[in-house]
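Hi F.,

I've been meaning to write this up properly since the lab meeting, where we talked about keeping a consistent format for the predictions we share between groups. The idea is simple: the sequence comes first, exactly as it goes in, then the structure tokens exactly as they come out, then a line or two of notes. No screenshots and no reformatting. I'm using this chain as the first example so we have something concrete to point to.
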Amino acid sequence: MRDVPRAGGGGQTGGVAVSSEKTSVAVDPAKLEELRALAQEGGHIELPGWVAGIHPSDIADLVASLDSEVQQLEILEALPDEVASETLAEMEEYEDRAELLSALDETRGAALLQELADDDAADLLGEMEPDDRDRMLAALPSAEAGEMRDLLRYDEETAGGLMTTAVVAVAAESSAYDAIAEIRRQGREIEDFYSVFVVDNLNRLRGTVPLADLILADPDAPVESLVEPMLAVAHPDTDQEEVGRAMGRYNLVSIPVVSDEGSLLGQITFDDVIDVIEAETTEDILRLAGVSDEEELRAGWLESVRSRLPWLTLNLVTAGLAASVILSFEAVIGQWTFLAFLMPVIAALGGNTGTQALAVTIRRIAVGDGLGPNHFEAVGKEVLVGLLNGFVLGVIFSLFAFFWEGGDPRIGLVVLVAMWSNIIVAGFAGALVPTVLDRLGVDPAVASSVFVHTLTDLVGFVMVLSLASTLLA
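Output, unedited:
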């Protein structure tokens, strides 16, 4: 498999100017119409020249925006192998790239897979149906098919599922001169490499050696004397989030993957970790909002309904619980109708406070930032924040209620205590619930919001109504 560089691009992307020979078109309507015309008119001869100045990422967007799979296949068939393979690699999983590859005959499909880095090729094969995957593997040379099967053994969300086996490694007992010659030889097979790893005669990882040190060293200097220890290593079953955190913490461009015996298996490069961070962030945002992480941005309406309905049903049940509390104080509300105005405000402030605490705590858990050994330091901080914010907001709203209801101090006291206590509880729950769920091995982004919002609604309603029934009787 070729190691095709995926980083970089052209034009203007995300507000950052990127200089390149290739231009960025994204999904330019004019370009899209030109591509449609080429697909409809069978302009296969003109197509390679037409895409020559466009980055594969932008070609992928254009191909994914075509009206039908037939047009997409016609374009892929007409593109040179290198461009077509990069286009498939740049497409998202929800854009049915695996289905497009499956629709190609095995000879063409195998040719495209051989153009890709082994980790990208394994990702594509992993998305295919088993029969189609076996068909493509059978068309690959036996050595490369074996590499693919080895990579497909690993879970896609682990270091093994992210790694590429394409590495540059030199022997610890070799000289600097011989190591440079070996790097030059291996570099012809690997188009883009960031680290030079050092291994012993059993292929066990000893560390890494900077290229600059090798070049400046005496030619007869042993590589072993130049070795720097690895700041981080991963095992095949290491979670991809841990890999991302380690790479960010130590500002690494790659992390080696080793077996339990310490043998070098491959490496994970920064471009793959960028994809992981984006995917994990999207997943956490969707889950925090009560949306399944399986729902993609371009999902159909029926799929969206199916993924959201269970969460909405659970919210309906918890809202019914809060409504039953209100019903039990029906007589109090009937006597003091202004309470119906106060309760939603107090509950809403508690809900917003809980959401803020949730977001901060889940972010800390996700990146391992600022949590003590017992993971409960954030709870104390959020309680203190709630104590101060609750007092300020409680005083403001109690003064409003006091003057609005004719200057009755009891009303101001009800509002102050209810608002204050609800915001304290919201901060406490917003930090405690995800922390406890994380300690229990449950994803805190999935279930926290339902528990926290239900609790703040119940506390807000109970505090207002119970205080009113006691102080205003």
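Notes:
The two ends are 80 Å apart (CA to CA).
The chain has three domains: 12-153, 168-279, 301-471.

If this format works for you, I'll send the rest the same way.

G.
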